[in-house]
Hints:
Layout: H1 3-18, E1 23-27, H2 30-42, E2 45-51, H3 59-62, H4 67-79, E3 113-118, E4 120-121, E5 124-125, E6 130-132, E7 141-142, H5 144-151, E8 168-173, E9 176-179, H6 180-186, E10 190-196
Antiparallel strand pairs: 1-3, 2-3, 4-5, 6-10, 7-10, 8-9, 8-10
Helix pairs in contact: 5-6
Amino acid sequence: xxxxxxxxxxxxxxxxxxxxxxxxxxxxSKMHVKLALGLQREGFLSSVTLGGPAPPKxxxxxxxxxxxxxxxxxxxxxxxxxxxxxxxxKTKPPLGQEQVHEVHxxxxxxxxxxxxxxxxxxxxxxxxxxxxxSKPTRRIWLxxxxxxKITRTRESSYVKGxxxxxxxxxxxxxxxxxxxxxxxxxxxxxxxxxRVW
Length: 197
């Protein structure tokens, strides 16, 4: 596990959000994928897509329907609400018309990129700061008790507490990359990766 590459990813995401980019890419590794999915789960990213050097098509914009079509579906569901839930594999609900878009992923692993959609709220980036906790020269291992103190805004083993609103800290454990509060609930410890707010 290379923390040098993670430091590059942290600074890249922080700079991309300050530059108001809607979509950015990072190199693919197992740790980067787990961290990106954790960031999406916590609400810092809007989308995580595996692709190549070219950005993927904006499938969310293509999937939107006309307002007239939405009104027809709303009236139909008001009369027959059971149509919103699929009964079998062949029947599809009128609202859940999932469109599968083919994304070209190169066979060469060096050309694969992880495309991340950044989020903004009231013209401000949701992900403002992303800072590495463990360094390549000093890795910080935390127990679940240490993480409990950190989530309650207290300092523990050279790591300051989570004091900013909405601040998260990601920890790599034997169960994958988890947020610090999840680690406290599951009573697992691990190496502190980065903090985001």
